[in-house]
Write a structure and sequence with these properties.
Strand content of chain B: under 5%
Shape of chain A: elongated
Largest sheet of chain B: 3 strands, antiparallel
Distance between the termini of chain A: 131 Å
Structural class of chain A: alpha+beta
Largest sheet of chain A: 7 strands, mixed
Number of strands of chain B: 3
Number of strands of chain A: 24
Radius of gyration of chain B: 21 Å
Number of helices of chain B: 15
Number of helices of chain A: 24
Helix content of chain A: 25-40%
Radius of gyration of chain A: 33 Å
Structural class of chain B: mainly alpha
Oligomer: heterodimer
Shape of chain B: globular
Largest interface: A-B, 46 and 56 residues
Strand order of the largest sheet of chain B: 1-2-3
Chain lengths: 813, 405
Amino acid sequence: MPDSFPLRLAILRVLVVSLLVTLAARLYYLQVLDQDKLVQTANRQHVREVILPAPRGAIVDDRGRPLVTNRSSLVVSVNRSELLAEHDQGAAVLARLAKLIKVPAAELARRITPCAPDVPKPCWNGSPYQPVPVLTDTTPDVVLKIAERREDYPGVTAEAQTLRQYPYGSLAAHSLGYVGPVTQEELDAAAGRAASGRPGGPALHLNAQVGRSGLERTYDGDLRGTDGVRYVTVDNRGTVLGVQRETEPQRGDTLVTSLDRDVQAIADRALAAEIARRRTEIDQNTGRPYAAPSGAAVVMDPQTGRVIALSTSPTYDPTVFVGGISRKELAQLTDERAGVPLVSRAVQGQFAPGSTFKLASTSAEVMSGRASLSGSYSCPGSLLVGNRQKKNFEGQGIAGAIDLRVALAKSCDTIFYGFAQQDWYSDESRVDGGQKAAEVLQRMARAYGFGRDPAIDLPDGEQTAGRIVDRAFKKGRWDANKAQYCADARRGYPDVADAARRSFLTRLAQENCADGWRFRVGDAADLAIGQGETTVSPLQLAIAYSALVNGGTVWEPRIGRAVLGPDGRVLRDLKSKAHNKVPVSAQVLDYIRSSLAFTPANGASGSVAFAGFPLDKVLVGGKTGTAEVFGKQDTSWFASWAPANGRARYVVVAMIEQAGLGARAAAPVARTILEGIYGLNGTKAAFPGGAAPTAIPKVAGNTAARSDRRSPTGTGTPPVPSPPASSPSPAVTRSPRRPRRERREAPRRRSRGSAADGPGPGPAGRPRRRSGDCAGGRGSPTPVRPDPGGRVGGCAPGAGEGREGLGKGGAPT
Amino acid sequence: MSMIRVRPGGSRGLPPLGRTPLDRGLVGPGRRDSLWWRVDWVIAGSALLLSLVGALLVWSATRPRLLEAGGNPDAYLERHLLNLAIGLALGLLFAAVDYRLLRAYAPLIYVASAVGLVAVLLVGSTINGAHSWIVLGGGFQVQPSEFAKVALVAGMAVLLAERRTQEAAHRSADVPLVLALAAVPMGLVMLQPDLGTAMVFVFTVLGVLSLAGVSARWLLGLILLGVVVVFGAVRLGVLKEYQIERFKAFTNQDADTLGAAYNITQARIAIGNGGLLGTGLFKGTQTNGKFVPEQQTDFVFTVAGEELGLLGAGGIVLLFGLLLWRTLRLAGRSPDLFGRLVAGGVASWFAFQAFVNIGMTLGIMPITGLPLPFVSYGGSAMFANWMAIGLLLNVHARSREVERG
């Protein structure tokens, strides 16, 4: 046998070498060729992003005084998806936590369960991946216990968070708005924007708080700031081993508003006091005390379009939204019986303006040539409009021929009925002749800013357009609803018990079915005196009267004055935009102004409320309005400005629902506000010298401290718990992982259970307070029921139709 | 049939001993009797270097774990160094004992290891699914299967070498005899079950048989038989569930990254994280994060991969290459069949075990639970490895003696 040993040894050598070469090649592949992918995977494993929340910017008033600031609070949160990864779905953890924070475990379990139609309340309204705050303002002791025994509390974090603080409670609540936790939809949208490079404010993180309402929402991008990110290295159980790198959080910018804390407080107090007083007075018409369920006051600078105060009653303290609002609290804020405090009456309220609307009527009739400044007109007690007698206010006429000055000052309705009737006949003949109706009054009303969003710097859903009825509007509504009208007419309301009401509703439906599209002469007459279906918001009225006194400029008002960087530098100087000029000559504007000034010669209707007011020092001009509302007491309006004998500095509009005469309820509110501004009759002047500050205030330093560098409790290293006064600590966005255990994710519920559904603090949670048409009107918290003529309400079939011959007569002023 | 020629110069084509540059560099003239001259310093040195690098890697891997547990962070390092010291002593013993005496003792070692393996089955403890350890108490435990590797190599070498010296012996009986010899420890190891060690036995037996001149048909037949046995074992359910899972995870590595494939995935991530130069000793984020399980034993190579990078990890592969090359060179130069088979057997053992272990961390071999020779933490393995080095040095010294004449 040949000696095969050397050959065999050589084969073995080759084999061994090839094995080692294989290893070397594979090593080269992993460490050089495939390295990037593996390093990324490694980073995903051992690097965690810890979000260092940026403190939200403060909101300050025109003199730099804080309206919204931050405070730090120790918050216990529970991450549900992490709990579910436990063997017992976290039952043991919840039981331990319940004992520690003295909240029943069942209650805790309910609170962290995402809301869904079949889930009993209270439930979690936010993203299912988001840690649910279960206890705010806890003690350092609790935080320490949770931090020390991480293994006992997986998924539970206890850390300092920045919370919004409202030093003056409900002051300017509706303007300031509130913040709420970011929703999954918003996170996705932000990620989409970031991916496509579109701007959309600073990046959003899972625990972020975003502006949900008011200025907080409009200026969210400025206020939010940029969260910092700390990249920590962690081990396989999520324990933090060290900090790799970090970016500092950049606190949000400061929003300076034109709101004045003092004037706002004066307005709030005046409104509340007057409402309380009206509730003790007996309404002569009904024999009951005035209900006065709500009211509003607006103070605006007519020269700049800046809003100085926006007051609404009832109001609320936005503090209820801090750290998450409970179902019960939210229900109270949206409760009809409580007057839906969440809704800003000043901006979203829609009420028939009554005689305050004659500003638009007078402008329209004079500019169209229907009326003349030098003309004389009779003011009878009633006027036949169409087939119906429409009365002057309280049926009283004014003897003899009067000019427009008296018609305005004494608020004669019949003169305006006459003009409107002539306009209507003229328009009808134009329509018959194939021309378009001129609709001079409606066009003038729109020029004054009625019937469209006021374009104030509040979120779109939080301002209303009101309603100016014209032919197109009625036709459109009829087209949309005629099937319903005719069906109701055929059926005849069998489910209405009262026979008289049933027959009334049936006849209404029949008329609507037949010619509900028609813009009747009665509609035109109602519009001329701000009645019928005409609605405006107090803010819109302030805009219109600002135009009257500033030479015709219709502002898009602004509450925001400036955006200041953290260093106090002015980043943006916010200015009101002039939307348009009213097509009214200076002569006519001057005529209207002087007619409404509270000079002894005028004897204007509102001046009775200013008895004892030093008009010689500050001359006031103003127009009252008393709007009749079917089934309700009269809406009291007062639109005023001062000084009326020079460059007007302030327009003050007040409104109280179901409170009687304009001069009795609304005018005293405006008077108190003006007294406070000027410091008259023993009050301290809010604006010494009567001049609002014009310069952007210096906001030195910042009220809230920046986020500190403490390590989060969520990742193991126990932080030093601090008293609630200290600065906030970061939150961990991604939970530590347990590698060998399968992590079950909470089921993704997008469409249900998120804040987008329920009436939660989410964006859609807030009911849209716009009752533009009949269908939307029923749910409105401030139903529009302006029609004295027998309509059932804003949402009755055939609202506004067929009341001639059906309803009671009478024309309010 | 011919006698095995014993040539002092080794196999054909190689220069005689003492003429290579390495030999000249290491061995000065006039010191040919010295220990310096008798020892193969490349074998001893590469094994020692591997052991010392292993000490660093074990230290780095266990430090964060020990710190977290609140213990002495250097505990494993100290034990590893102690194991190395004992291993060196054992290696010295195996190297110093008389060459002929070694052949006489080999059966004794074989029997002792077989007894150890039986004892494991009777009184052993199960660690990580394998019933492989005898706990001695006081924190000491013995893994007899490691010693069985040395015993099998020595046993086979003695058996075959003794038969060749007897003229009458039939070569055809070699294979059954060797198989019978190997069957005992292999069967006992399979009962634990320790598939990895059994595979080492298979590869070692194949290596020894092929160097012993067994016909190629036998060898191919044996390989075929092995394949059939493995298939049968899987089919008949002899293998444990976790072993099958490991293999499945190997064939489809991305399927279940948190289950059976977790170890493979984590090992690969750690190695990839090292890149060319590594993160630096003690600075590996995956290592410090304890992401790789069993990192001081089976997955110690991942520490090298992450913290020392391609240079360090490649260096370890290179050291193994040096050790194996030198061992196979020794096989070629050995004066007798015993020496050849010992060197060839040890080379087969180390080569296979190193390849499977490193290949497992690189994701090209299934997880078998084999430690990396010299580098991994573990006393029994360290002792057995150094015993094998002792054997090699003894063979080397013998070849020098024969060369000197």
